[in-house]
From TrEMBL, chains A, B:
This is TetR/AcrR family transcriptional regulator. Residues 35-54 bind DNA. The keyword Transcription applies. It comes from Streptomyces guryensis. Keywords: DNA-binding, Transcription, Transcription regulation. It holds the Pfam family TetR_C_46.
Length: 216, 216
C-alpha cells in the first residue's frame, strides 16, 4: 500500500485497520510476544503511524479490549428478543454469544486469554463480564418470577447460578474455537441442555429443548 | 528467625516455607507485582537463600504452580468415592474442589488468575485442567452408561458438557472466594442444581438433589 493511498484514507478507517491487525496479532501471539512491527506490517502502515494514532502498545491493547468487549456485549444484547420467555431469551443470547466468539476468535482470545488476568487491563474485561453476569442474573430472576418461585431462589443462589452459567459459556467458547467442526449452534444447545434443564428443574421441573423452528 | 535456626532446618522444609510465602505473594499481588524481597521476608529467610534454593522468580513461580496443581487434583481425586453412582461421585468431587479452593484461595488465584494465561506457565495449568476435564468426561460417560443412554450422547456432546461443567466450577470458585459467607458446600450444591439436574435430564429426566445424609 503506497503512501498516497495511506493519506487519502480517513483516520477512523485507518485506526480500525490497525486495530484489526492488532487484535489478530495479540489474539494469536499473546500480548507479550506481539510486536508493533508485525501489527504495522499486517495493517499495511508504518510503525510510526501506529504510534502516532494509538500512542503505545499498552494503549493499542486497551483500545482493542474496549472495541472487542463492546462488540461482544452488543452482539448478545442484539441477539436477545426481550418479549420471549426467559429460556428462549437465554437460548437466543447464547446463540448470539457463541456465534460472535466463533466469528471473532482472535477478539475472544484477547478478552478471555490475554486481557482477563493481565493486571493493568483486567478491569476492562471484568466490567464487560459483570455486565453479562448481570444480564444472566436478570434472566434467572425473570424465569423464577414466571414460575412464581422467587422465595425458593435466594439472591445468593441466583448470583451463583449466573456465575456458573457465564463460566460454562466462557469455557465452551474457548473449547468450540479449538475444536474443528464444533458449531456455535451446537455449543449453545449443549449449554442449554446442561444449564437450562437444570435451572428449569429448579423452577418447574420440566426439561428444556431447542425450538424446532430455529435453525442456523 | 535467626541464622542458627535457619541452618538447622532441612532444605525440604525450608523450600516449602518459601513456596508458602511465594504462593501467598503471587496470589495476592500477581506475578508481575510480586517481589522476591517480599517473598523472602515473608518466608523469614534472606533473598540469596531463595535464589540458591529456587533459582529465579520464574522457577519459583513454576514450582508453585506444580505444587498447587498437584494438590488440587489430589484433593479432588481423594474426595471422590469410586463405587458411588456418577451423580454422587460428582457431588463429592465438587465438594472436594470447592473446599480446596476455599481453603487455598491464594493457590487458586495463582492457578486460575495468574498462571493460566501467562505464556511460559500456561502449559502447566492446561495439563492440570485437562486431567480434571478427562475425569469429568469419564463421570458423564459412566452416568450415560448407567442410564443406558450412550447412543444419545455423542462423544462431542460429552466433551462439551465436561468443558461447560469445569468452566462453571472455575467461575463459581472465584466467585465464592470473593463473596463473604459463601461456603464450599453451597457452591457445590449450586453447581449440582445447575449442572446435574440438567445432565440428569439428559440421561433420565429426573432432578438431582443433595443427599440428606451428607453435611459439611
Amino acid at each position: 500500500m503506497g503512501a498516497v493511498k495511506t493519506k487519502r484514507m480517513p483516520r477512523a478507517v485507518r485506526e480500525q485497520q490497525m486495530m484489526d491487525a492488532a487484535v489478530r496479532t495479540f489474539g494469536q501471539r499473546g500480548y507479550m510476544a506481539a510486536s508493533m512491527d508485525e501489527i504495522a506490517e499486517l495493517a499495511g502502515v508504518s510503525k510510526p503511524l501506529v504510534y502516532l494514532y494509538l500512542n503505545s502498545k499498552e494503549d493499542l491493547f486497551t483500545a482493542c479490549i474496549r472495541r472487542e468487549a463492546t462488540a461482544l456485549v452488543e452482539a448478545v444484547r442484539t441477539g436477545v428478543v426481550p418479549d420471549l420467555p426467559a429460556d428462549r431469551q437465554l437460548w437466543e443470547g447464547l446463540r448470539a454469544f457463541f456465534t460472535h466468539t466463533a466469528q471473532n476468535p482472535d477478539g475472544w482470545a484477547v478478552l478471555h486469554l490475554q486481557a482477563r488476568t493481565r493486571e493493568p487491563f483486567a478491569a476492562e474485561v471484568t466490567a464487560m463480564r459483570e455486565e453479562i453476569v448481570a444480564f444472566v442474573t436478570q434472566l434467572i430472576v425473570v424465569a423464577a418470577r414466571e414460575a412464581h418461585r422467587d422465595p425458593n431462589l435466594p439472591e445468593r443462589e441466583v448470583a451463583g447460578l449466573a456465575e456458573a452459567l457465564v463460566g460454562a459459556a466462557e469455557s465452551l467458547a474457548a473449547w468450540a474455537n479449538a475444536t474443528p467442526g464444533a458449531s456455535a449452534r451446537q455449543a449453545a444447545a449443549t449449554l442449554m441442555n446442561f444449564a437450562w434443564a437444570g435451572l428449569g428443574n429448579l423452577m418447574e421441573g420440566r426439561p428444556w429443548s431447542p425450538p424446532a423452528t430455529q435453525e442456523s
